[in-house]
Write a structure and sequence with these properties.
Blueprint: E1 5-7, E2 29-33, H1 36-40, H2 46-65, E3 70-73, H3 83-94, E4 98-101, H4 108-118, E5 123-126, H5 135-142, H6 150-161, H7 202-214, H8 231-249, H9 269-274, H10 279-293, E6 295-296, H11 309-315, E7 319-320, H12 321-351, H13 373-385, H14 390-404, H15 408-418, H16 424-435, H17 452-458, H18 479-490, H19 492-495, H20 502-510, H21 513-531
Parallel strand pairs: 1-2, 1-4, 2-3, 4-5, 6-7
The structure holds flavin-adenine dinucleotide.
């Protein structure tokens, strides 16, 4: 009898969990496909494509070395049009059942089913073991709720998992959330430690050559490439983060520094999204590290009396509670939450556009010159590496697009193409719901919208910008502030019903009518110029 074929997708590259942790070469043959439909659809960043394909080819090589029969369809293979076509051709040739782990992104399961059906092959699917929170736990929590808030889910999961909980069932340190300590602006007195990079080996070089030959319209610089593509690389990224940057992860989580790409962020989204790390092992590693080196009070709340020179030195390696809790919240909270939101609500989210936003994506997003220095530096960094950190995504590229009323789907495509860690399951809720408020607040209590004041506080970009973040009027007033007020004005009816926006709308309405008209006129003129690539 013919062996079954296990399809291994590019975001399921794990041998520590899932079917590859259990099945040996004698149990199944392997099929891996570099789907042209996926790769050609958008001008994906060259480093994003390289990271995914290189990680796939590395896994295929390792499996072959371990005796598996691996059928690998490179992007120039005649059968690699899409997953379904490749699977039909493969099964027609070798027979046997089709096996796969439940895919994360919409559409893939249907493609695989159609492919197996066309070959008349029986199908067996495995549950996706790459998550911490089982579907049933989320579904029971979500049942009957009209809005889903991450903070409520996160507290539920903290209790359910026991992570960062005291023996008496209270959150460690007495609070669920230390975010107030995680909002420092750019540091004046320190530079972030360097992070490990993984220069291309021969296999990655081959991928780079294929990307250059077959995807000439890929966006972004292919070099220098340093993303992790193996399990060993991934573990090194995790270790280096915990060793070098974890202590200041919380404090500078919302800071933006021109020319500094990753600051104290972990860059773990890439190996996590490839499947090279399990989120539970990341959380456990963070907890174990904190246990080993000790924890200290949240930044800004140290007990001054206890801070003798010796204690301060001994304490320097200890992880502040705001960094520990903040990191756990990102992985156990946000990442798990948005996965389940996508799993249960992606179709509704994808269709949502309650703010009726239809403007095209501004040319600056693809690298056209712009005078908005915060945006220019974010895009330049993205172009060079495929990476922007969370606050750049949310409060620079996401914020500016939202204020201008850019079509959420156009923005979704742009985010998907340009970010090295982009997958549909994580982009749809982050871009459409969290960043663009396209669902009208199903996941957030208010839109993440801000004018130049916020950007000036969190970033050093305004200092080198031709616009002045403090001015409200005049040719050198930052247009982002005018766009912010035009956004509030445009949606004032909706926002008066939101308890966190009501006061802002009331403040706007109280302003002198001439002042409001001047701001709106400036917003419209600068918006038109920006959308035309002239600002
Ligand atoms: P850190 O700041 O070091 O955070 C640690 C980890 O927490 C991340 O690696 C990630 O796995 C997880 N995490 C934190 N926030 C989120 C979140 N909102 N959603 C999911 N996971 C989270 N994340 C992606 O993985 N892929 C994307 O395509 C993506 N697109 C985004 C688009 C927008 C508009 C926004 C606002 C956020 C997006 N995020 C995305 C979430 C988050 O910005 C990235 O996970 C993070 O910036 C990756 O960098 P890091 O690994 O250094 O993260």
């Amino acid at each position: 009898m013919s062996l079954p074929t296990l399809v291994v997708l590019g975001d399921q590259l794990s041998r520590t969990h899932g079917p590859l942790a259990r099945l040996g070469p004698e149990d199944a043959r392997i099929l891996m496909v570099e789907s042209r439909a996926l790769l050609h659809g958008l001008p994906h960043h060259a480093q994003k494509v390289t990271a995914f394909l290189s990680a796939m080819r590395h896994l295929a090589r390792d499996l072959r070395e371990d005796g598996y029969e691996v059928h690998y369809r490179r992007l120039d293979h005649p059968d690699a049009d899409d997953f379904g076509t490749a699977l039909t051709a493969h099964l027609t040739a070798v027979g046997g059942e089709a096996w796969w782990t439940r895919p994360r992104d919409d559409g893939v399961e249907a493609e695989l089913r159609a492919g197996a059906d066309a070959a008349g092959a029986p199908i067996h699917t495995f549950e996706d073991e790459g998550w911490i929170v089982p579907d049933a736990v989320f579904d029971a929590w979500a049942e009957g709720r009209t809005t889903l808030k991450m903070e409520t889910f996160y507290r539920h999961v903290r209790r359910w998992s026991g992570v960062l909980m005291d023996d008496d069932g209270e959150p460690v340190g007495g609070r669920w959330n230390y975010d107030a300590a995680n909002r420092a602006g750019p540091p004046r007195d320190r530079t972030p430690p360097t992070r490990p990079t993984h220069p291309p080996d021969a296999l990655t070089r081959e991928v780079q050559a294929d990307v250059a030959a077959h995807l000439p319209h890929a966006w972004g610089a292919p070099e220098p490439f340093g993303w992790p593509v193996t399990r060993a690389d991934a573990l090194e990224v995790l270790d280096a983060f915990l060793r070098d940057r974890f202590v200041d992860f919380g404090r500078y989580q919302d800071a933006m520094v021109s020319g500094e790409r990753t600051l104290w962020h972990s860059t773990l989204s890439v190996p996590l999204n490839l499947g090279l790390l399990h989120p539970r092992e990341v959380v456990d590693a963070a907890l174990a590290h904190a246990e080993r080196v000790g924890t200290r009070p949240p930044d800004g709340e140290d007990d001054a009396d206890a801070a003798t020179a010796d204690a301060a030195t001994a304490d320097a390696a200890a992880v502040p509670l705001n960094a520990l809790e903040g990191f756990v919240r990102q992985v156990l909270g946000w990442r798990e939450f948005l996965h389940h939101v996508y799993r249960t609500r992606s179709a509704t989210l994808r269709a949502a556009n309650v703010l009726d936003a239809h403007a095209p994506l501004p040319p600056a997003y693809w690298g056209a010159p712009t005078d908005l220095h915060c945006l220019a530096t974010t895009i330049a960094g993205l172009e060079a590496t495929g990476y922007a950190h969370h606050i750049e995504r949310l409060m620079v590229t996401g914020n500016v697009a939202q204020l201008l009323g850019v079509d959420p789907t156009a923005l979704l495509d742009w985010f998907t193409a340009t970010h090295v860690d982009a997958l549909d399951w994580v982009m749809v809720p982050n871009v459409l719901a969290m960043s663009q408020y396209a669902d009208g607040g199903g996941l957030t209590t208010k839109p993440y919208a801000a004018g130049a004041n916020y950007l000036h506080k969190q970033s050093d970009a305004c200092a080198a910008c031709r616009f002045d973040p403090k001015k409200r009027e005049g040719e050198d007033a930052c247009p982002i502030t005018a766009w912010y007020w035009a956004f509030v004005d445009r949606h004032q009816e909706r926002f008066t019903t939101n308890h966190r926006m009501r006061m802002i709308v009331a403040g706007w309405r109280k302003r002198d009518a001439d002042a409001r008209a001047a701001i709106l006129a400036r917003a419209e003129a600068t918006r038109a110029a920006f959308l035309a690539g002239e600002l």
